[in-house]
Amino acid sequence: MKTLLSAILALGITAALPAQVPLWDLSKDSIPHELNHGASRSQNGTMTVGGGNYFGVPASAFPDQKNFTVQVTVSFPQPADDTSLNVLLKQRKDGEDTGLGLTCIYGKSDSWRVYRPIINGMHIGGIRTKFQPNTPYTFTVSVRDGSASYYLDDAPGSKHFTLLLPNDEPMWVGKKLLPRETPFASAEVSALKVYGADFIYKSPKEKVSAEPRGAIAGKNWMIDAPTVVDPKRPKLLFYGDSISGGYRQHLLPALDGKVYAYHWSHFVGGIDPKVDAVIKEGAAVADFKLIFFNNGLHSLSWTPEKATDQQIADTTRAIVRGFKTGAPQAKLFWIATTPHTARRSDPSKPVDALGDKNPVVLRINRIAQDVMKEEGVEVIDMYTPFAAKLELAAGDEYHWSSPAYKMIADAVVAKTNEVLSLKNEGK
After folding, report:
1. Model-level pTM?
2. Based on the domain organization, do 293 and 391 belong to the same domain?
């Protein structure tokens, strides 16, 4: 039996379907007094933030913290150099490893005019944009099953396959997060809408892959997974923090059509000799032939005052044993942690020094290398070539430029070709 809609269409009558109603809308909903910290509203409804002025969207606008979409339109007068603005910020008050955000950064050089996603307290990468003054930009953050995707004026920016850790905080607009941040003097927010779980954002500029990717998730972890159409094609897992997100952009195209690459964005931040249970669970999601892993700079807290050599070795060994137990058929490769670098002193100049926390990196790499030797895990040394090419550092102490990330991807591809005998198989 035909539905009413199909009957109407059959008669050639155009039906106007109702638009999705947001859960919270800046143009209609009032900002609670306790969430307004100096932000002002003009006659046309635009909110002005910047400096020490900001406002918040009530936490009640996010009933399902794993499924929601935020769209915000913001324009800037001419920003000053080396300033930033947290357009979105939904984290605990201490900013500790929960929720999400989006920061706009304006530097002297074009390479530092970017917007940067924040996932669970981590500033991840940076998507370059020009930030023309007094020009409206619409940012969309779409969260599905706890995984966040970022867009600028519908253009896809980045996807993050780390489960967002929920919090009951408001979503702040324009709030300063770090002591060293110098915020934009002002910015104008002309639209802000929060949609619930029944709203599915689709970008008209997003390419549809012939083999779309999805996600496999467990408690506090999520793995970005390809759609398997060829059961004979080997599978590879690469694991790490935002560094893995950096080389992902080069690795996936290089392996496309030859190897199914799964990406696990994850890290062990504290000393935890029992982390092998979580690693085992994730490593067992597919019959991996190869696993490349690195715990990254989130272990910079493992200083001699907070972690003994034995504690670092035990936690590192637990990570290895987790991969071995979850994927006993896989060949493992450990990627040495990349250097901690000095902060860029001037946006127009390259980084030319290691950071003050780099001795921690050297210590962790030394201990980890001993563990890998004992466990029979092959080492891919990315510390040495990166330490010799500090000019490729991003300048934020932790991240790197695209050419550096390609170096890691090339190393992974070379080992993959070697192990799977793919050297003569071009795509």
Report:
1. 0.81
2. yes
